[in-house]
């Protein structure tokens, strides 16, 4: 081995020689290796000047002249911002239009709806799914209050059963203004037998067959036909679609303690306003209205009463102002 690499003849040793034929010679490293070494040293200098090389927490102009943050001005943040700009530019064409459009107009535009549904998905997951479940399928509330609050934490949104109305405008109103249905506690107004009787009729989906339903004032909020009044968010009691626990026991619980009634055992159902505190921008809330409508359960005939339509129109600028 040593014969191959160190042909005898003139190359001095470092003084380390073992057993006469094993020696440390002072040969130069090969030329290619030296070139590589020099090139890397030059590269380090160039890189040091061009790119941010010293991990100090300054990005101002002070060091720029001497090249510390890099005279090439490259930073990971700049690169991200540039990429972001490409995306924003692509979106701007849609976002600008959305600003001045009503949810109903967005819904009527196929291309915009498609765009809105895509960004709505992320908004919904971030802001709504915790209560309404992914894609609005609802979440069952479990845990230590299960006995008391068993049932859906927030209504299912992907069916066509609406407490407050399923047109894109009423959905939009729900999101911008929040909702809080109220049913009084009946524990002091009805006897246990009356509650039992009502609960059984309601569970059977035939509340109006029970004379107590009208006598005890249930019709005032749930309507003569028991189908609910959307202006109050009172549930339809004839469709066997349950917002809370639909067993006889569960219904007794609802009748006895009410909903948002202030009673400590009342069922709690509060839909927060997303305008308040600028939680979402005006455009984001429009996107969500269309997104929720498009779950498939939306009510097509966008026929809000003229008063409501006017109110919604005057709400929009206010919502925008708050969002800013
Ligand atoms: C803190 C839990 C919570 C969050 C978060 C929440 N909601 Fe709600 N939402 C509710 C509750 C509770 C109700 C029912 C209110 C009632 O029964 O009075 C409701 C009702 C609604 C309704 C009316 C349903 C109907 O049948 O008329 C819509 C639409 C709605 N929410 C959409 C949304 C959207 C969109 C978001 C996200 C921006 C959202 N919600 C976030 C709890 C929530
Ligand atoms: C002050 C108005 C009001 C009165 C009076 C009232 N309710 Fe209600 N009730 C509501 C509202 C609003 C809701 C929906 C609550 C929600 O989901 O936010 C509701 C919900 C219910 C539910 C739950 C339905 C479900 O899907 O889980 C039942 C059951 C019910 N009411 C039965 C009755 C009966 C029986 C009476 C008469 C003894 C009655 N209510 C009287 C307003 C009222």
UniProtKB/TrEMBL annotation:
Record's cofactor remark: Binds 2 heme C groups per subunit.
All residue ranges annotated as the Cytochrome c domain in the record: 115-206, 204-296
Annotated Pfam families: Cytochrome_CBB3 (PF13442), FixP_N (PF14715)
Family under the similarity heading: Belongs to the CcoP / FixP family.
Protein name according to UniProt: Cbb3-type cytochrome c oxidase subunit
Cofactor: heme c
Binding site for heme c 1: 128, 131-132, 271
Key words, A-Z: Cell inner membrane, Cell membrane, Electron transport, Heme, Hydrogen ion transport, Ion transport, Iron, Membrane, Metal-binding, Oxidoreductase, Repeat, Respiratory chain, Transmembrane, Transmembrane helix, Transport
Biological source species: Ferriphaselus amnicola
Primary role: C-type cytochrome. Part of the cbb3-type cytochrome c oxidase complex.
Stored SUPFAM superfamilies: Cytochrome c (SSF46626)
Cell compartment(s), UniProt: Cell inner membrane
Any one GO CC term of the record: plasma membrane
Known pathway: Energy metabolism; oxidative phosphorylation
Keyword Ion transport set for record: yes
GO molecular function: electron transfer activity; heme binding; metal ion binding; oxidoreductase activity
Transmembrane residue ranges: 32-50
Binding site for heme c 2: 183, 218, 221-222
Subunit field text: Component of the cbb3-type cytochrome c oxidase.
InterPro entries, per the entry: CcoP_N, CcoP_N_sf, Cyt_c-like_dom, Cyt_c-like_dom_sf, Cyt_c_oxidase_cbb3_su3, Cytochrome_c_Oxidase_Subunit
GO biological process: oxidative phosphorylation; proton transmembrane transport
PROSITE patterns in UniProt: CYTC
